[in-house]
Write a structure and sequence with these properties.
CATH architecture of the largest domain: 2-Layer Sandwich
CATH topology of the largest domain: Alpha-Beta Plaits
Number of helices: 23
Strand content: 5-15%
Strand order of the largest sheet: 2-1-3-4-5
Distance between the termini: 41 Å
CATH class of the largest domain: Alpha Beta
Structural class: alpha/beta
């Protein structure tokens, strides 16, 4: 309901206005009734209204003086309507110049009052739409700034904007929040750009931590099928609640799980001193994610827990290095014998989970570095993705050297494939497929299966040839097609969103703003007749 203030020194006029129409049915409620401008001004300094209807001629402070004071001192953004007579025409002109929306001649006629109220309602509706569009643009811009900071490719303006829009205090971390059974949930048929599960998780995070909603982001783009939520955590969040970091985050996990009724976990990148070092925390979080696949029971992971703290724990470095060498040479026999040797060395320490974890973590990190050493054009993000895809939650269970042997052998073949160049013909076929089926729920895995090529390697090729991931390539193609339809057709925006593959129109608008720099409606208006 829109709140209305009536201001007139004549009691009969005030009474008449209150009963002249059914205010409530029109979406209005009379919040205050005042007898002069000074009384109205006092009320406005402490309360908000949406519409002020005031007589011009009043003692102490007339309606024109009230209007000018409200506008000059920016006391209220309420629409202003004057009650006036024919003799007040000069005053009315002055009022219009000072931002008065409209005027009504006395005595007030029902139809004229209703017409003015309808005008106020329409303006308020437009204002709400403009506000929502502005908020979407601000959200899209902040998402872009966070993406720059996460990737370590930012400028001073990005730092300034982040400091202005985030509540940064003390050390911070990049934290990835994901559904525990994410891979099994992924086959629900939702769009790969924005799954319903990711949106549910994102909204739950913001509901639980309302004062830090800007600290959450959907744009974690190192995994094509990643439906997780990114979180910029600051140590003040815990300390202000007299909690330790682990206590605060565990409490947050429990609250989110209550809302979505699904288990989640958090992967906490290394602690850094300021927002300019966020990419370091993000990079460590990526590595942590590849390791976390081997621990289904934990809900909270800290990067610091994976750092080598030798003490009394035995790191089988020489043996693991031998296995890495065998993988580099793509020698299945030596790979198998090396892994058997590793498990023999760990025999007797099976109850020492820390020792097993240390050796497996060292092995995985060496695999990541191995790919970069073999080919400096290989993207480590894609390698981490490949390792995550090829290892299930129960992989490398203690004593299962057969699974580790199978994985290591397949990884050696994968590295060998990375060295080979892919023919332009395959890319042409994939491009044609995207142009034909861009509105469908297509993914790298689908294309890889269809054209008999490793999906992770196909992702590498996309990155090399187009300078962007497959997901971003598909998003750009969809948005460019939407822009074409916006200019060349009269279809509604939400229909166009569906036609190019977006079930969530809000997400479509957000992506459109990111890529085209304005809302779809503004883009249509700017390009009509061009």
């Amino acid at each position: 309901m829109l709140k209305v203030m009536l201001v007139d020194d004549e009691p009969f006029t005030l009474q008449g206005l209150q009963v002249l129409i059914d205010w409530e049915s029109g979406g209005f409620e009379i919040a205050a009734v005042c007898s002069n401008g000074k009384e109205a001004l006092k009320y406005l300094r402490e309360n908000q209204v949406d519409l002020i209807i005031s007589d011009i001629r009043m003692p102490e402070m007339n309606g024109l003086e009230l209007l000018e004071t409200v506008k000059k001192e920016k006391i209220s953004d309420a629409a202003f309507v004057l009650l006036t007579g024919y003799d007040d025409f000069a005053y009315t002109q002055r009022a219009i110049r000072n931002g008065c929306l409209d005027y009504i001649l006395k005595p007030v006629i029902e139809d004229e009052l209703i017409a003015v109220l309808r005008k106020v309602s329409n303006l308020n509706r437009e204002s709400v739409i403009l506000k929502k569009n502005r908020e979407k643009m601000e959200d899209a811009y902040l998402a872009r700034v966070l993406r720059h900071l996460i990737r370590g490719k930012f400028n001073d303006e990005d730092i300034e904007y982040a400091n202005k829009n985030l509540q940064l205090s003390g050390n911070l971390r990049f934290i990835e929040i994901e559904l525990v059974n994410r891979s099994s949930e992924a086959d629900s048929g939702e769009s790969d750009d924005m799954s319903a599960m990711q949106r549910q998780l994102y909204n739950a995070c913001k509901d639980v931590l309302k004062e830090y909603t800007n600290h959450f982001t959907l744009d974690i783009s190192y995994d094509e099928d990643n439906n997780s939520v990114g979180f910029i955590y600051c140590e003040n969040m815990a300390s202000s609640n007299d909690m330790t970091e682990a206590e605060f985050l565990n409490a947050l996990i429990r609250k989110i799980e209550v809302l979505i009724i699904k288990p989640i976990r958090m992967l906490c990148g290394k602690s850094v001193s300021d927002i300019s070092s966020l990419s370091k925390s993000f990079d460590s979080c990526r590595g942590l994610r590849s390791i976390a696949r081997f621990h289904n029971t934990k809900k909270l992971y800290f990067f610091e827990e994976t750092e080598d703290k030798h003490g009394s724990i035995v790191l089988c470095k020489n043996t693991i290095d031998e296995i890495i060498g065998s993988i580099e040479k793509n020698d299945p026999v030596q790979i198998e014998s090396g892994i058997e040797k590793l498990y023999a060395e760990l025999k007797g320490k099976e109850g020492n989970n820390r020792a097993f974890d240390l050796n497996i973590n060292y092995f995985l990190f060496q695999l990541i570095h191995l790919a970069s050493d073999l080919d400096d054009t290989v993207n480590q993000e894609e390698i981490i993705q490949y390792i995550s895809e090829q290892t299930s939650g129960d992989a490398f269970i203690r004593g299962s050297h057969q699974h580790m042997t199978k994985f290591a052998t397949e990884y050696a073949l994968y590295l060998s494939e990375l060295r080979k160049s892919i023919s332009r013909g395959i890319l042409s076929v994939v491009e044609a497929d995207i142009k034909k089926n861009y509105a469908d729920n297509i993914s790298l895995k689908d294309l890889g299966d269809k054209y008999h090529i490793n999906s992770s390697y196909l992702g590498q090729v996309f990155k090399k040839n187009y300078g962007m991931s497959f997901k971003n390539y598909l998003t750009n193609y969809r948005i460019r097609e939407a822009a074409r339809q916006i200019i060349n057709t009269d279809k509604k925006i939400n229909r166009i969103a569906e036609d190019v593959g977006y079930k969530d129109s809000d997400y479509f608008i957000r992506k459109f703003i990111e890529i085209m720099g304005c809302t779809p409606s503004k883009y249509r208006k700017s390009n009509q007749g061009a």
